[in-house]
Structure formats: C-alpha cells, structure tokens
Input
Amino acid sequence: MALRHLGFSKKVIVIDEVHAYDAYMSQYLLEAIRWMGAYGVPVIILSATLPAQQRERLIKSYMAGMGVKWRDIENTDQIKIDAYPLITYNDGPNIHQVKTFEKQEQNNIYIHRLPEEQLFDIVKEALDNGGVVGIIVNTVRKSQELARNFSDIFGDDMVDLLHSNFIATERIRKEKDLLQEIGKKAMRPPKKIIIGTQVIEQSLDIDFDVLISDLAPMDLLIQRIGRLHRHKIKRPQKYEVARFYVLGTFEEFDFDEGTRLVYGDYLLARTQYFLPDKIRLPDDISPLVQKVYNSDLTITFPKPEFHKKYLDAKIEHDDKIKK
Output
C-alpha cells in the first residue's frame, strides 16, 4: 500500500464533479484527501454546485492530514460564504477565498412542475415546434421504458437513449454521437428526443431547447439545467425562453420509489420546498444549493402528517451520513 501511495509523489490530483459523490463514496474521498494532505500533494477539486458543508469537510480533511487542527484556524466561518463563482484554498494553515470575478451574463430559467401524465403532451409540443427535447430521469429502467414508449410513437430515428448500463465502448460512442448532434457548433437535427440518466448531467457540453427532469437534489437539478440553452444559437421561436420541467413533485412527499432509493426523501423534500418558479443563473446557484443542504435552516410544512414524514426522513438521512 505504501508503494502505491508513493505514486502520488510530485503529482497534482484533480477531482471533477465532486458534488456527484454519494454519502458512502464521500467518506472514502475524505480519507483520500486526508492522505494527500499528509503527503503534501496538491489537490484541485472542481464543482459548480458544491454545498458549503461539503466544502468545509473537504478542506478540513486535507488540513487534518497536514497536521493542522481546525480549532487553531482563524475565521473558519468564512468558508461557509455564499458566493458563485468561488475559489477556496489553503496556504499552509491559512484559508483564503476568492469571490470577485468578472460579472457574468444572467440567464433566466423558468421552472414548471409537470405531472407525469402530461409528459407526452410537452414532448409532442416540442417536436411540433421543431425543438430538441431532453428528458433526464433518475433510473435506468425508467429511461428504457420512456425510450421504448416514445420510439413506438415517434419512431426509432427520433429517439436517442444514454444511460450508465451501456458497456464502456458503446457509451463512449453514444456520447460522441450526442456531441456531434447537439454539442457546441454541431449541425443540430430539426427535432429530436434525447432520453438519459444522470450521465447526461455530468461533463457533456450539450444543449437542449427544452429540458424535462425527474426531481433530484437541488445541486443536481442545477447541473441538469446547465444543459438547457447552454450555447448561443438560434432556436425555434417557441423556445427562445428557457423552460425547465420537473417531474415527480408531490405535496404529500410520495416520491417515485426509484428516485427515493437513489436520493432519499429528505433532500427531495427540501429541494421541492425551496424550488422557485424562476432560477437566475449564475446568481441563484449557491443560495439555492446552500438552502437545501444547510440543516440549520429549519423548514415547516403546514400539514402535520407531511411534516412528520419530513422529520422522519431527516433522521434517516442523518443516520446514513453518520454510518
């Protein structure tokens, strides 16, 4: 093991899309970061939607590896700053943050809660108006079912499917085809339905005219929104305004079973609670993510039975984090 660790000597470690790690893998990541701190190996961690609590855990682990005690660091509260973009770094035992950048252009995204039974109508409308519609769902099974259903209705040539269960070579080919279809400077098809799972929200520079998504934790929803109107291109008149449709929101928190297994009721309930009708990018990214993940920010649901379900979900979530 020690010889393997020596392989990190004089290297720089880059970890991208760190928000995508689940609670289980995050514990392994924190331990790996601690070892990197002990070895003095520089680590660069990238994410557009990192909760402040996770940001603190990551830098705390690295500095613990360096032998720095958190209680000896001044102004540790500043690490919880709510800003985007934001660079956080340490210089020995000192933490610094850069939050002043050139002002970015605002992009308004309008959010619509979409009942499952209206999905077909929205997709048909998109095709009738000549748009490229993306559908991102939380399970492979659902993506396959939707692809079969829409292929039966609109034809196989109109539907593309991408999910994590494809073998590596097939998935790479599909990602390449997708970039050629709706990537930057691509020759876009006049209309298309592209269905996928979480693989679409990560690292692919693709652009949808209209986007439909299963409910997911706020940071992942914003990642998905990043594939909507991503490029400066001419669009069908119907879709000059960016519309993002969210499936699976329920007042009674009766979330889809597959979605619950992936993300848990607690983060889904908080995301649904704080999900606005309009998101201003990039200004709203950090505030929305921090609201959902800041457990000190308490929320109350009007109906007692729903609030009890939320509190039970919080206990289950907290227990999972501790394990």
Observations:
- The radius of gyration is 21 Å.
- The chain has eleven helices and eleven strands.
- The mean pLDDT is 90.
- The longest strand covers residues 107-114.
